[in-house]
Design a protein that fits this description.
Layout (H helix, E strand, L loop, with lengths): L7 H8 L29 E3 H5 L14 E5 L2 E6 L11 H16 L7 E5 H7 L6 H16 L1 E4 L2 E2 L2 E2 L2 E4 L1 E9 L5 E8 L1 H8 L3 E3 L10 H13 L5 E5 H8 L5 H14 L5 E6 L2 E6 L17 H10 L5 H14 L8 H15 L4
Antiparallel strand pairs: 1-11, 2-3, 3-5, 4-10, 5-8, 6-7, 9-10, 12-14, 13-14
Length: 356
């Protein structure tokens, strides 16, 4: 028998009752330091292997099944721990870890398979609650990620090795406050995940991925991002899409889910159409404004003054251009306090590289 367990989806219903029909979760931290982050750690990245193949459970309750997926020459078997299979929501943590390591790789910094993380920043970055329940669910997610065992022959950085592994090798709470909330975390990625990062086999995700309420919507978005990418259009048969999502629902129910997704039209980056039994994804971003057409955030004189104080020796106007590029790469999010965001960017850049 499966045990009842509250998930981020359940939480979303509780904290968003007035808009229960909304297909997207609320932006829980709209003015947080997320948009003060340096370009090195602000862009969500996902590994292409788990985007292509259904490794994470779409269940919203504890899932203790052993799953097996075969497609062409790829075989994946996923076995749960006593806590159940790792879920599509647990994957938020893996995306966060991959994004942090990829940011350092792109900056030419030394890489490490073991990460030291701030729990609060992880929760905010993935649009999760920062309440006591939020920290408790974070611990449970780590338990499922480390306990779920995968056996597969998926290639990682050009190597095809049939092996069994966990998605993360280990995790540990380094410090915990008196209230019981985690403060610092130590996470070691599995060799398989780390090889994927070393091979740069990742894709950028929309920030709104973390606002998708339903597991099936997250999984469908992953597949669209992987296969449609920057193309204008991608078509796939409904039956094959059903298989690739790993959804356990009946075919008719799955078709109803896709119809609902089409009707709501809330998928980031892509519009979805259903014609008979063919699903069509169309890229919303096939038109991009030129730099002359972009309305950049406006900075006042105080922002430039404060930027010079927190980043002595740097040319603040060069930093402004870097910050603008980061803002565009991040999807041009609306900033409540552009000056504060810019100064925070400059401060972090100076902390990481005191010498220009």
């Amino acid at each position: 028998m499966m045990t009842v367990e509250e998930t981020p989806a359940d939480t979303a219903i509780r904290d968003d009752r007035t808009t229960a029909k909304s297909a997207l979760l609320p932006q829980r931290h709209p003015n947080h330091d997320l948009f003060i982050c340096d370009v090195l750690d602000a862009i969500p990245k996902d590994d292409m292997a788990s985007m292509e193949h259904p490794i994470f459970s779409l269940a919203t309750k504890a899932d203790t099944r052993v799953l097996r997926y075969e497609h062409r020459n790829v075989v994946v078997e996923i076995a749960p721990s006593v806590k159940g299979l790792a879920t599509i929501y647990d994957k938020d943590i893996l995306i966060y870890c991959i994004s942090q390591v990829m940011a350092k790789k792109n900056a030419g910094e030394p890489l490490a398979q073991t990460l030291h993380l701030n729990a609060h920043e992880l929760l905010v970055w993935t649009n999760r609650e920062t309440s006591g329940d939020g920290y408790r669910r974070l611990k449970e997610a780590f338990e499922r990620l480390s306990g779920t065992r995968i056996t597969t022959n998926i290639k990682a950085n050009g190597e095809e090795i049939t092996e069994g592994f966990g998605l993360i090798e280990s995790w540990r709470v380094v410090r915990e406050t008196k209230s019981g909330r985690m403060s610092e975390l130590k996470v070691r990625l599995s060799d398989w995940v780390y090889r994927i990062i070393q091979g740069s086999e990742v894709l950028t995700l929309s920030r709104d991925y973390f606002r998708l309420r339903k597991p099936i919507d997250r999984r469908v978005y992953e597949l669209a991002r992987k296969h449609c990418g920057e193309q204008d259009e991608w078509k796939i048969g409904l039956e094959l899409l059903h298989k690739k999502t790993g959804a356990s629902s009946h075919y008719r129910e799955f078709k109803s889910m896709i119809r609902e997704l089409v009707q709501n039209d809330h998928l980031p980056d892509y519009q979805v159409a259903l014609e008979d039994d063919m699903v069509i994804f169309r890229n919303r971003m096939n038109w991009q404004p030129s730099k002359a057409e972009i309305r950049y955030p406006i900075l006042d004189a105080e922002a430039y003054h404060d930027a010079k104080l927190v980043a002595p020796g740097y040319d603040v106007y060069n930093l402004e251009q870097e910050w603008r590029d980061w803002w565009v790469d991040s999807g041009m999010p609306e900033l409540g306090f552009p000056g504060k965001a810019f100064v925070g960017f400059c401060k972090k850049r100076y902390q990481m590289r005191p010498n220009p």
